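ingest -> validate -> predict -> emit
validate: passed (alphabet ok, no gaps, 73 aa)
predict: started
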Amino acid sequence: MTTIAVPSTARVLDLGTLSAGTVVEARRKNEVHYRGCVEDTAPGLGVVWIRDDMAGHRAILHLDEYSIWQISA
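emit:
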């Protein structure tokens, strides 16, 4: 029997806990708008920059607009 790894998610309330390379999702009304690796954070501003996997561009995410969720395998 093979075990399948299911990714788990945890909501990020403190951007200071994120570091470059962490995989996150940005959600609004339980819909994923962005998913990708963290490139930089500015916890004092409530902002995180990611490289979006879906579109391939850099995105700036603000905690006032999105809930941020850390994805771990």
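The chain has a mean pLDDT of 92.
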